[in-house]
Amino acid sequence: MERRGLLALVLHTHLPFVRHPEHPAFLEERWLFEAITETYLPLLERFQRLANDGVPFRITMSFTPPLLAMLADGMLQGRYVHHLDQLIELTEKEIQRTQWLPPFHRLALFYHHRFTTARRLYVDVYRRNLIHPFRELSDRGLLEPIASCATHGYLPLMETQPAAVRAQIQVGIQAFERAFGKRPLGFWLPECGYHPGHDAILKEFGIRYFLMDAHGILFGSPRPKYGAYAPVMCPSGVAAFGRDLESSKSVWSAEEGYPGDDDYREFYRDVGFDLEYDYVRPYLNGDGLRLNTGIKYYRITGKTNEKQPYDPDRALEKAVQHAGNFMFNREKQTEFLRSVMDRAPIIVSPYDAELFGHWWFEGPDWLEVLIRKIHAEQKTIRLVAPSDYFHEYPTSQVIEPTMSSWGYGGYSEVWLNGANDWIYRHLHKMADEMTRLANAHPRPDPLRSRLLNQMARELLLAQSSDWAFILKTQTHTAYAYRRLRDHLARFSYLSDAVRQGLVDEPWLSAAEAKDNLFPFLDYRVYASSV
Amino acid sequence: MAAPSQPRGGPGTPPRREALALDVSAQAPSASTPAGESQRQGPSSATAVEEQFSIPTGYGDDRIVLMVKDPWWLFAYWDIHPNTERTARRQLLPHEVAGLHSILRVYDVTGIDFPAQPAHASCDISLSDLATNWYIHVDAPNRSFIVEIGLLANGGRFLPLARSNRVTTPRFGPSDVIDEAWMTTDEAYWKLAGTLGVGVSSSPLGWSALLGQALSSGGWSSVSVLGQGRPSLVRGFWCRVDADLVIHGSTEPRAAVTIQGHPVTVRKDGTFSLRVALPDGTQTITIDATSPDGRHIRTVTPIVTLAWSGSLTSTAHRSPRTTGRRMAPKPESGGAS
């Protein structure tokens, strides 16, 4: 053990399944496009640069099946290239338009370069499928990809439907294996939502560890000797790593975190809102509503509406400073923990991947600099993936963690409140129905098998925690409501078809083509053993 | 309930498309569908099934489901068929009917086999007749609960209509159980929890504050790709004004045009245009058009001044006129002809 402490950076990568072949362009598909341009491509580019420079590192990323499915989907790949082409065209116009305003002209060139580079990487280098380069990083031992639930279902609120919990886990792992060609060692519980007993299901599928929030371990029983700075072994034999809140805070916190620095790019000033309407109209969606294009010219500046132009060099300098600060704080933290612990602490810092680049524009730079600094400038901490820990310390204290999540309040409040509690009545009913039908049809004919599999897809899609989250945050609520209704409607229609023995085959084919993820799905995962 | 309903049924009966009969002999025991009602007609278009569907308010399946929101709060929803309630009411004696009302009876069943063993404690929550769900403040971490929904008759008789699943609230605070092989002290425990540097003292109270800081996408919506509301950064009235200048003209189709020395595209019909963001001050703009054979050159030099009076910046003192800003882009010379 050559270092005094271990640091595990974990990026949770997830988007809900948003794919609308029935419309030529669909606003919410931009969630994927923006994440590709601003997060996934920049991260890949930096990881590969680090690898090519011979900088050793270990980073952990969870990939949810809806995102994996969208990244591999031909229709969305084509739409993404079109989206980039539109942005490139807009930046060409912007280069002209800003020629008498040097700070903005420079930014127009900056964005034009970014988008053309993104296009080159996406089309020419990665051949439109970003799973391949992530997989390659995994094969090189730099990236530890981990699995997650089938559709980011929030498991603690599914507790009355154990078969649905199992299906979320099992289908999630199957999707991971298809994407990465190997079994996952780790598992990301959506929203870090843990409920005692779910570890046993993970164990059945060979999972070695999962991540949870610190209080889930600190309040576990017996009392943890090392707090959240060593994994604990659940009764089932699966390890749980607790999130370190100090390092979380420095990145997540809206008030004190790095991303709020005045020199960083301002998210809320975008040419899609700022420029003259007719000029940007061709780059808006069909409905003509203004939207974020990703071309943003201002820095945060301060708590003012008078924003100053963004300066990428100055922002990069700040990212370097912040990376140094983060590393310094982890070193100090490690020394302190070491004084209380008789083994090396592991500091686990999980973040949403989309935080880096999309929200915190300089996040990918910060991450690259942090990795370089950890390699070159200190000897206290070492970057690891959680699974590396077991080579150092094979034994862990056996503890039953408590139900918890990383959401506001630490429990289930974000996904269970007056704005969204009505959905569970339906989700639970669907899950019960699915299990009943799975039990009733152990050996279906091919057509009924298709019906039941599609039912399972509709159920899984309805269970995505994103809908509850969106209903709570009051943005895009109409879309979340519509998605819940659509999946419920299709599920109900399919259920009737199974029951009545009548199938509108073209309709079924259309549904299969629309909600087309999990082609391998076998609805019998919902069968209960009772 | 935020489930707006839509009128059922669509225009006319959609044409039945190719409907395949399945082998019904292997049919399942009748399963009720979540929709409650079924759509017997084939859908007329790809989205007809969805458009015609309204999310039902309930399923009438006589059940109550209990969920844990946090260590202090539970949530229950229920769905009682009217017939079930009617049947229960028939058991009542005439004098019991007055004051009859629905209640939730909350049982503390920690560590016991309920109902074989009696609950440690119970309490009743009176419900409004319209309620179909309820948040229950048990204020009791690490305890187990079951609830029943039923009718409380005058005289105290309780007619349960449905009983929930069992839930256990999470422990909030350190466990009292200490494993001898992994000995720890209070001091060491709180040191490890207190490394957070976020005001966690040696009590769980600090945790309540900490967990309320929302250090994840679940709490901070703007971080998520999904939540892109556009907050006004500084409250109060605001206004922004910028000026773009569009220079446009026409010439012979294959002529070459430069503006400030930079070539601009001449379209097939001979028109050209350039949009530029106009800086403050005076711009002398040189526009050169060169004939296709290179022999003729026309030059025009419009001079454009953008000057501002007034201010959009909020000022410390309140003067009603300070936001009056005028913009005066004035072409001072002849434009391109």
> Poorly predicted ranges of chain A (pLDDT <50, ≥5 residues)?
none
How many strand elements of chain A?
Answer: 10
Gross morphology of chain A is globular
- Amino-to-carboxy terminus distance of chain B: 65 Å
Oligomeric grouping of the chains: heterodimer
Number of helices of chain A: 19
Low-confidence sequence ranges of chain B: 1-44, 195-201, 218-223, 318-337
CATH level-3 fold name of the domain at 63-168 in chain B:
Immunoglobulin-like
Percent of residues in helices of chain A comes to 40-55%
Indicate the mean pLDDT of chain A: 95
Describe this structure in words.
The complex is a heterodimer of chains A (530) and B (337). Chain A is α/β, with parallel strands linked by helices and 530 residues long. Chain A folds into 2 domains: 5-71 and 129-265 and 310-409, 7-stranded beta/alpha barrel (Alpha-Beta Barrel), CATH 3.20.110; 416-526, immunoglobulin/albumin-binding domain-like (Up-down Bundle). Chain A is 49% helix and 9% strand. In chain A, strands 1, 2, 3, 4, 5, 6, 7, 8 and 9 form a 9-stranded mixed sheet that branches. In chain A, α12 packs across α13. In chain A, 59% of the residues are buried. The mean pLDDT of chain A is 95. Chain B has helices at residues 48-52, 82-90, 186-194, 205-211, and strands at residues 19-21, 63-68, 73-79, 101-108, 121-126, 133-137, 144-152, 158-163, 167-168, 244-250, 256-259, 262-264, 271-277, 281-284, 287-290, 297-300, 303-306, 308-309, 326-327, 330-331. Chain B is mostly beta strands and 337 residues long. The radius of gyration of chain B is 37 Å and the shape is elongated. At the A-B interface, α1, α3, α8, α9 and α12 of A face β1, α1, β2, β3 and β9 of B. β10 (502-504) of chain A pairs antiparallel with β1 (19-21) of chain B, so a sheet runs across the interface.
